[in-house]
């Protein structure tokens, strides 16, 4: 008998008892290789001694001090470290407790910025289909995933959605990658002109689309064109790096590889690496200055923002990622993971695409490789892969609706950066077992 409201109301998950390196153990002693860091969280594995020590030291000296009264050393130090590495122009960090809160904060910050600068008529967001930005009502509204939103639609603010940059399915015959990228980026301009650019607050996008598409990076030039369009119409660019940030793609910030800097950027997941719940919304000096010159007060806040223990964990994690060389390791091991995936599944009749960057990889499953026809959703292929992998002792992150929110299946991999070559072998072997079982 339990009083916990589980994710799945009809089944009880095994009880996780212990974590060690790349593995989680349940209370029966069964070992699971954490091939997706849960959902791209555990970038340093499950027993990092430096992060554990930082949390223990901090909680023993200062547990909590409300940000309505105080700042704290861990918050100051973490903000300084993040900004030292952040894309050009980003200057201030607003700490929260997770990804949805970071996105919600970004949306409200962007809206209030418009009010502060005397453009209150800006009330809309534009984002992309097949995106995921979180489950709170604002974040869900900008997200573009049909099934996650459906029953909550009456509660959600109206948002425009343009096409994702998803070359595997969107690029046309004879079209270069660059031309495809320009074509889909130009959808932003068309939508701005349709709704009236003076009514739009911001464009929101994930540099590498995670949960809903399975590690899909934009093609070269896409985000540069997006940045140009935003600048031309005075629309803010919000990049959501909750999943793809913090070294996951081989650079601390994913958008570094696209050569653009946003006005507002969200991070979470890998920032606390699972040791503490923490997220953050970074913004440019220009945005912050509008608050200084205007009302002087961002009308937002939650009790636990800037939590000292969470910030201490985040500081230890980011130190390890940067000075500790873990981002470089993610880039290097990510290439090995990619080659191993291609060797094992490159000719698999039901793997249509293998993609991603760094330790963020996706495999798209198809009924037929030539036509790219997806499986009938009724077969529940992604659910079967998840169950079969878990049975085999592998945690991965399969999802459905890849093509259009209804059809399509993919598997997302986001293992810890400490993964060894042997463990890459173990991951591939167990994933193969799962594919065989699910597709049988
Ligand atoms: C890109 C992106 N944004 C926001 C979120 C929401 O984060 P959280 O689940 O921590 O609220 C997620 C979660 O998967 C995400 O992938």
What would you note in describing this structure?
Helices cover 38% and strands 18% of the residues. It is of the alpha/beta class and 440 residues long. The protein has 2 domains: 16-47 and 325-439, Alpha-Beta Complex (Aspartate Aminotransferase, domain 1), CATH 3.90.1150.10; 52-322, Type I PLP-dependent aspartate aminotransferase-like (Major domain) (Aspartate Aminotransferase, domain 2, 3-Layer(aba) Sandwich), CATH 3.40.640.10. A 7-stranded mixed β-sheet has the order 4-12-11-10-7-5-6, sandwiched between helices. Strands 1-2-3-15 form a 4-stranded mixed β-sheet. Strand 8 and strand 9 (216-217) form a beta hairpin. It starts with 15 loop residues before the first strand and ends with a helix. The mean pLDDT is 98. Bound molecules: pyridoxal-5'-phosphate.
- The coarse overall form would be globular
Percentage of residues in helical conformation: 25-40%
| Corresponding CATH superfamily of the largest domain | Type I PLP-dependent aspartate aminotransferase-like (Major domain)
CATH architectural arrangement of the largest domain: 3-Layer(aba) Sandwich
Order of strands across the biggest sheet? 4-12-11-10-7-5-6
Name the average pLDDT: 98
Separation, N- and C-terminal Cα atoms: 35 Å
Structural class category: alpha/beta
Percent strand equals 15-25%
The first-level CATH class of the largest domain is given as Alpha Beta
Into how many domains do the coordinates divide? Answer: 2
Radius of gyration: 21 Å
The biggest beta sheet is recorded as: 7 strands, mixed
CATH topology of the largest domain: Aspartate Aminotransferase, domain 2
């Amino acid at each position: 008998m339990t009083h916990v409201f589980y994710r799945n109301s009809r089944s009880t998950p095994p009880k996780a008892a212990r974590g060690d390196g790349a593995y989680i153990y349940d209370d029966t002693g069964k070992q699971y290789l954490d091939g997706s860091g849960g959902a791209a969280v555990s970038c340093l594995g499950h027993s990092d001694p430096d992060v554990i020590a930082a949390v223990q030291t901090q909680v023993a000296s200062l547990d909590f001090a409300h940000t309505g009264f105080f700042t704290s050393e861990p918050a100051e130090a973490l903000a300084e470290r993040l900004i030292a590495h952040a894309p050009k122009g980003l200057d201030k960090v607003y700490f929260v407790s997770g990804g949805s809160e970071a996105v919600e904060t970004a949306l409200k910050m962007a809206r209030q910025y418009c009010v502060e600068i005397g453009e209150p008529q800006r009330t809309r967001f534009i984002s992309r289909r097949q995106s995921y930005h979180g489950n709170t009502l604002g974040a869900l509204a900008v997200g573009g995933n049909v099934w996650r939103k459906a029953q909550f639609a009456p509660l959600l603010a109206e948002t425009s959605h343009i096409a994702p940059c998803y070359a595997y399915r969107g690029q046309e015959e004879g079209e270069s990658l660059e031309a495809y990228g320009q074509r889909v980026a130009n959808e932003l301009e068309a939508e701005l002109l349709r709704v009236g650019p003076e009514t739009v607050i911001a464009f929101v996008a994930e540099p590498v689309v995670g949960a809903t598409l399975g590690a899909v990076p934009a093609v070269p030039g896409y985000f540069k064109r997006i940045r140009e369009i935003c600048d031309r119409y005075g629309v803010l660019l919000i990049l959501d790096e909750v999943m793809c940030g913090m070294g996951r793609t081989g650079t601390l910030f994913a958008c570094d590889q696209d050569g653009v800097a946003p006005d507002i950027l969200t991070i979470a997941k890998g920032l606390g690496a699972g040791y503490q719940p923490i997220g953050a919304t970074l913004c440019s000096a220009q945005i912050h200055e509008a608050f200084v010159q205007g009302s002087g007060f961002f009308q937002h806040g939650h009790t636990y923002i800037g939590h000292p223990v969470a910030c201490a964990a985040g500081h230890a994690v980011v130190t390890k990622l940067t000075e500790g060389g873990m981002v470089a390791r993610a880039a290097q091991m990510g290439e090995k993971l990619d080659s191993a995936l291609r060797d094992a599944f490159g000719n698999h009749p039901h793997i249509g695409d293998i993609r991603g960057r760094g330790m963020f990889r996706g495999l798209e499953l198809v009924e037929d490789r030539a036509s790219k026809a997806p499986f009938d959703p009724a077969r529940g292929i992604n659910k079967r892969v998840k169950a079969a992998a878990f049975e085999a002792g592998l945690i991965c992150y399969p999802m459905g609706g890849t093509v259009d929110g209804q059809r399509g299946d993919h598997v997302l991999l986001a293992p810890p950066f400490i993964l060894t070559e042997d463990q890459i072998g173990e991951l591939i072997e167990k994933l193969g077992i799962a594919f065989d079982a699910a597709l049988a």
